[in-house]
Amino acid sequence: MSIPWPPTAETLLPADHDRAVLVGRVMGAHGPSVVTVRDNRLIDITARVATVRDLAEYDDPAAFVRGCAGPDLGPVAEVIAHTPPEFRRPEIPRLLSPIDLQPVKAAGVTFVVSLMERVIEERCRGDASLADRVREQITEHVGTDLSALEPGSAETDRLKELLVAEGWWSQYLEVGLGPDAEIFTKCAPMASVGTAADIGVHPRSTWNNPEPEVVLLISSAGRAVGACLGNDVNLRDFEGRSALLLTAAKDNNASAAVGPFIRLFDAAFDLDTVRKLTVTLRIRGVDAFTLHAESSMAEISRDPEELIRQLMGLHHQYPDGVALFLGTMFAPVQDRAEPGLGFTHRLDDLVAIETPTLGGLINRVRTSDICEPWRFGTADLFRSLSARGML
Predict the structure, then answer these.
(1) pTM to 2 decimals?
(2) Predicted pLDDT at 134
């Protein structure tokens, strides 16, 4: 189960990339640029649209990008080969996260499997050694299949009453089965990283995992205009100790990976396509550990459009649009070392999140304190665009 490092164009691009409208961002010698992919080459369209935020506001972003011309920055293969920190060259652009000014939000416990694992984290207070025992206890109380339950329905209300009576209600069951979804801020605008970048776990975390997800690009009007892949890096021990540590568990340096490119919606790829995607996760460690899992969007408990409605509307506006992680069903229980301790990352793990229509998001795991620090923010972006006459 090989995961190439640096990633290759073959692992990066969708299977049908010749017809997909792909948009991304690169960092060049003079600052970030918005790019599209044509004939396996990156075309700079920043002179036509300075930010991905602005692109999302067009009535038909895909049609607009198809009509954009611009400088050829070189082959995708060359750019991706020089994106990891140790392979960079100043004269060759490197890939960035494909989103810029949008806040990055994430929906939690939108799949039954991950819902149950969040309950387990809470019950064992973040201690991985207790997880198997708690998992057995939960199965005895609520079973393993909650997929037929509709969040907020009368049936889930009755289940809530039963669990409360038995002392087993959980805040995670509340957001998984109740009327209100869990939607939190994963990271600030400009803080996400792209493919071929290092992703960060907190140096004090001893129980953590990747979360492979689909990410929607949403306009300020609440309209989904495209999608890409995401890794919602998660610290199970931090969140398990207290849900109030959600920010500490989720928002660390380099802890949100997004990419490789946004595929814009058109006649060949739309929200219905997203609803049918199967996302694959592969992990390979320097210790020869391997893991393979799949996550089917068909099993999501809340439709993407419902999540968008809960995220934004009259109750909350996002003038720069938003990027929304839709949630994951991946909750690893495979033991990596000692029996009963389950999975946790080790340094230099390679993580590949893939689906044929969106390509591959590949990252290397480091601790957040040794990943590249986040230094280029919104002010830097606008200074760079202004200096290049792009505003």
Answers:
(1) 0.90
(2) 63
